Amino acid sequence: MTTKTLARSLDGFYAFLDRPLFMWTRPLLFLLLVPLAIGLTQPLWHVALTSPDHPDGLVLEVYAYTVKGGHDGEDLRAINALHQMIGMKTLDPGSMSGLDWLPFGFGILALFALRVAVLGNVRSLVDLSALVGYFAAFSLGHFIFKLHSFGHHLSIDAPARVPPFMPAIVGTQQIGEVTANASFGLGTYLVATFMIGVCVLSGFHLVRGRRSARREQVASVATA
């Protein structure tokens, strides 16, 4: 491929980025906002703990805006008692303050998606998918960092000493006499539906844009 041909191909692709979205894309973007909105009200992460003192299990759920324990908060108090036994920090909304920007971040994504659905072109859809990818990677990375901090900053004065550990994000983990079973909550899957949907729409437009650029390149060569 010559330099001139490559330039024509890129010009055609860049021109496609400035075209309006396919009409069917706009209602799909509106529909994708539904799981995003519902996801904000559902737990993003869930962990169930069992121990000899709590054979029926204790439940902890992390939302985008708070931390909740099962049985009207009684489980959270019991979980914090277990944490104090091994020197972990107690869990409360304040302890997860590093995640309190999530509702604001989700709101920015929703507003940007609305703008793309109403006024956007292909370029703005690609920008939205890039923002979604960054938001997902940063949010997950920050959550992993918070869990790592909880498991590695243990008090040396704790009644029961355990070696520093990385709490499981997904799966079963044994910590002393406590068994933890962690999994992503419904909210994570709903938010992921929005994010994956945006990226799929963006990818489809990019593939169509590449094909359109090739057709225009062939047509320009034929008429040259």
Mean pLDDT: 85
Question: Rg, please?
Answer: 24 Å
Main β-sheet description: 5 strands, antiparallel
Strands, count: 5
Quick gist of this model?
58% of the residues lie in helices and 14% in strands. It is built from six helices and five strands. A hairpin with a 2-residue loop joins strand 1 (45-51) and strand 2 (54-62).
Give the helices and strands, then pairings.
Blueprint: H1 3-17, H2 25-39, E1 45-51, E2 54-62, E3 67-69, H3 74-86, H4 102-119, H5 122-152, E4 171-175, E5 178-184, H6 186-223
Antiparallel strand pairs: 1-2, 1-5, 2-3, 4-5
Helix pairs in contact: 1-6, 2-4, 2-6, 4-5, 5-6
Question: What does this entry look like structurally?
Answer:
With 224 residues, the chain is an alpha+beta fold. It has one domain. Helix content is 58%, strand content 14%. It is built from six helices and five strands, in the order H-H-E-E-E-H-H-H-E-E-H. The protein has helices spanning 3-17, 25-39, 74-86, 102-119, 122-152, 186-223; strands spanning 45-51, 54-62, 67-69, 171-175, 178-184. The chain has a five-stranded antiparallel sheet. It is elongated, with a radius of gyration of 24 Å.
